[in-house]
Amino acid sequence: MSYLVRRLVRGILLLAGVSVLCFLFTEMAPGSFFDEMRVNPQISPETIAGLRAQHGLDQPLVVRYGRWVKSALHADLGYSIAYNTPVAPLLWSRAKNTLLLTLTAMVLTWGISLPLGLWAAAKRGGVLDRAITVISSLLIAVPEIVIALALLATAARWRLTPVGGMVSSNFEELSGWEQFRDVVAHLTLPVVILVLCESAVIVRHVRASVLEVLGASYVQTARGLGISRGRLLFRHVLPVAANPAISLFGFSLAGLISGSMLVEVICGWPGLGPLVLDATFSRDLYVVIGGIMFSALFMLGGNMVADIMLMVSDPRIRTGAADAG
Amino acid sequence: MQVRVRCKMSGKITWLIILLVGLHLLLLLAGFVAPYDPAAQNRELPYAPPTRLHLWDSSRFHLRPFVYPWSPVDDGYREDRSQAYPVHAFVRGDSYRFLGLFESNLHLFGVENPGKCLLLGADAFGRDEFSRVLYGGQISVAAGIVATAVTLFVGSVIGVVAGYYGGWIDETLMGTTELFLSLPWLYFLLGVRAFLPLHVSAVRTFFLLTCVIGLIGWARPARLVRGVVLSSRTRNYVSAARGFGGADFYLLRRHIAPETFGVLLTQAAMLVPRYIAAEVALSFFGLGVNEPTASWGNMLSALQQYSVLISYGWLLAPAAALFVTSVIYYLLADALHSRLESR
Amino acid sequence: MVSNFPTRPMSPEPESQNAFLRVSGLAKRYVRGGLWRERVVEAVRGVDFEIAAGRTLALVGESGSGKSTVARCVALLEKSDAGQIWIGDTDIASLSLSALLPWRTQVQMVFQDAVTSMNPRFTAAEAVEEPLLIMGKDEALRRETVRSSVNEVGLSVDGIERSVMQFSGGQRQRLAIARALTVRPKLLVLDEALTGLDLSTQGQIANLLLDLQAAHSLTYLLISHDPAVVGRMADVIAVMAGGRIVEMGSTAEMMTAPKHEETIRLLRSARAAQTNLAAITGASL
After folding, report:
1. Residues of C whose CB is below 8 A from B228
2. What is the pLDDT of residues C113-168, one digit of tens each?
3. pTM over 0.90
4. pLDDT tens-place string over residues B12-32
5. Is residue C8 over pLDDT 50?
6. Which of A314, B135, C23, C88 has its CA 20 to 30 A from that of B175?
7. Which residues make up the CATH 1.10.3720.10 domain(s) of chain A?
8. Contact yes or no for A10/A51 (Cβ under 8 A)
9. Separation CA A121–CA A299 (nearest Å)
């Protein structure tokens, strides 16, 4: 239990660290949203000053940070200057879409990679194993943006899936089931891109750790005792091989969230990515900061889930045996 | 500093390095290899498809390939077979600065005006895609390399300090690496870029870009270097050298630093393609190198329009170039990594 | 109890009774653990002994008894927490780091594992000249000293441009000794320097060390757990257990009439090992 508490404290410290970093950068930012307005002779300097005061941008850094933290704890992340609406609900509506994309990709990735990695390791040297090694190497070597563009071009050229957006223009008129199918159709391309990129990494790790376990002496002993292959794999090998795989979970989630930004922009999926990108262009600082904090929050949340899973699956962590000595 | 260079490299690594050097040489000599100036527009040939090279015409076989010019028709282009332009080698064309040193106008190949040899087609302004891929490659690959240098420098300094001095310095620094490793890097990159001025000169953008990309990724190399330093620090020969009166700096320079070179080299091979991709992504978003300077990223951003994407496939050429570059670097990194492990 | 081990013939009384090295009240502790937990290990808890010039004192004991720690403190590789280390009139344990520099040439350590005590990327020449390089001696002097040192340990100068890894275990140990000799030390700390070598090589290196001791009046602090080696090389034996010296005396006494239970135990287990070895190999002592 103390293990979880310590990880939680660490997570909170990390979040605090990220927020401090973000704010430090705003101090260094030589331009602001109002620079554009300043050039415009129709807007008087008083109006600009008033707007700045309204958004609290004339306060010193520490005060701004303090106020932001206080309001953040009340789930108020400031005000978006460009959209003229509070940041938090704006982010949340987009974040839901990103979550949908990321979680779907996560589930599919692990759903594909675990069995594939297991199989490849079990039939080591076979056709499947070699095919997986080559294909995964290729997918890792090629940058995500290339894969995304290639798949986008293919999908667009041959009209495989709808391109752009989350729903079609006639979404309102569709029945419930058709609405679901519509979203799924739009979801396909971005998910496929994410899954391809991520599972290449995961399959290799699963394969490697299963191979390591298979070579261990207690597995050899079990085989010598005549345990069936299936039972061997699932009762003995998988639980142990799962440990490094679960540790990978956190990093994998990090990669997915980062990657999802790129994929969202390219495929036109209305998630956090395009929002933060636009905010970057319009120098809408609170949106950018909020976006970064949200994604960091997701990541840390995912890491916590991984830690819990690790604790559940690995008795050594529960009893603190690993810490003694 | 005595550094023993292992001259017996495996064949595979040698070939990959040759390939890589060739690639970089090609990009360095972009001015020479590219037939046209990357900013030279041909307003009458927007989105012209790649020029086809012919060896046969209606009468006979020609040893020297030739091209037909494109003439616009309703929804595209048609080859105008009335005039043929043979392709010559070592022609005089647009002038350029060779390696930034002196002016020249000698090009590897070209056709006589007003013929155009657009090997990879043209973009919206009729600019030669092939030339732009070469020039753009200079920017993108250079960004990747410089950013890698920044990362490895920062990472190794921090890794050495953390690994050698240990204690609370080590704990704080490693905590910071955890912070950086757990950030979604693209979001953070965007964030950092967001807080910097949007429109600056191309040179400043380049440096800004590479520093930003480089400073995000220092965490992993730092950890790896720290690991190497930690394990070398306690070796007996280091203790012995200290027993002879060797100072910290001597020990680091003579005994510990050489151990890190293998790791750093492998990291370099892995990071360069990733950072090139980062530059491409940023420029694609419009936050990197801006027009009119070509980079693979801002060339690809034209494809964000649906119509362009499905009709003018040759504009994916920068993606293909990025693909080739990444694969070669990755193979090299893989080979170096295996060699490091086996030693 | 009659010992089967070959013992060192009694040497004539030294001219001067002055001890070269005198250790008094040496203590050292280690702190393990990170930010949250700490564990203190008292490696050495107050150790006194002295070695006369030109003589050998052997420190024996089980692993964990603290003998390696004592060796490292005497060799100035670690700083002791308490106690004094006298060489002549100076307590080198109390000197600051910068004041210690000239003393580092007086005391040198030869490590157990020659493989790890020299950088595998170095050539033999580079490894042997390193102390001189650190001290800033010029190239001609370095080359000359390296040649003479290498010759003294019985190696040919021809092969010293080869990599360290190309030498055999015994040869590497000779190189380590040559390296230590380049700075003309007065005291050599031999930390298990003969452990891990095969028996015949062990004998050769032991003979080399004895010859060198006679030629240069070197004083040795020998750390070992092998009574055969100890019997061959030491004048005085000190037995350590749990961070303290439990018995000390001349070699002959200790071998023939040990008093402390720890000494008896060590002798007995070593003798058993030797008997087994003889049974297995059929060799006679």
Report:
1. none
2. 777 888 888 898 999 999 998 888 888 998 999 999 999 888 888 888 888 888 88
3. no
4. 888 889 999 999 999 988 888
5. no
6. A314
7. 93-314
8. no
9. 29
Reduced to 3 states (helix: H, G, I; strand: E, B; else coil), residue A220 is helix
Chain A residues with CB inside 8 Å of B197's CB?
A: 30-31
CA angle A207, A213, A218 (to 5 degrees): 160
Query: Taking CB atoms and an 8 Å cutoff, what residues of chain C touch B244?
Result: 104, 130-131, 134-135, 183
To probe the interface with B, which of C134, C187, C188 has the most B CB atoms within 10 Å? C134
CATH superfamily of A93-314: MetI-like (1.10.3720.10)
**Mean confidence (pLDDT) of chain C:** 81
- Regarding beta strands B85-98 and B61-67, do their DSSP bridges make them parallel or antiparallel, or are they unpaired? antiparallel
Q: Looking at the complex, report in whole angstroms how far the Cα of residue A41 sits from the nearest Cα belonging to chain B.
A: 21
- Residue C109: its chain B contacts at CB < 8 A? 240, 243
C109–B243 CB contact, under 8 Å: yes
DSSP SS3 for C43: strand
Q: What is the pLDDT of residues C64-111, one digit of tens each?
A: 788 888 888 888 888 888 888 888 888 888 888 778 888 888 888 888
Q: Which of B171, B233, B235, B244 to mutate to test the interface with C (most CBs of C within 10 A)?
A: B244
Q: Is A60 helix (H, G, I), strand (E, B) or coil?
A: coil
Tokens of B59: 């009468």
Sheet of C19-32, strands arranged across: C39-52, C19-32, C82-87, C90-91
d(CA B245, CA B21): 43
β-pairing, C19-32 with C82-87?
antiparallel
A265 CB neighbours in chain B (<8 A) are 285
DSSP B240-253: HHHHTT--HHHHII
Measured CA to CA, the distance from residue C172 to residue C175 in angstroms comes to 5
Residue entry with tokens 């753009």: B136
Tell me if B187 and A150 make a contact (CB, 8 A cut-off).
no
Chain C, nearest residue to B245 by Cα = C101
Closest CA to C189 of C76, C79, C97: C76
The answer to whether A303 contacts B192, with C-beta atoms less than 8 Å apart, is: no
Best mutation target among B170, B171, B233, B236 (most C Cβ atoms within 10 Å) is B236
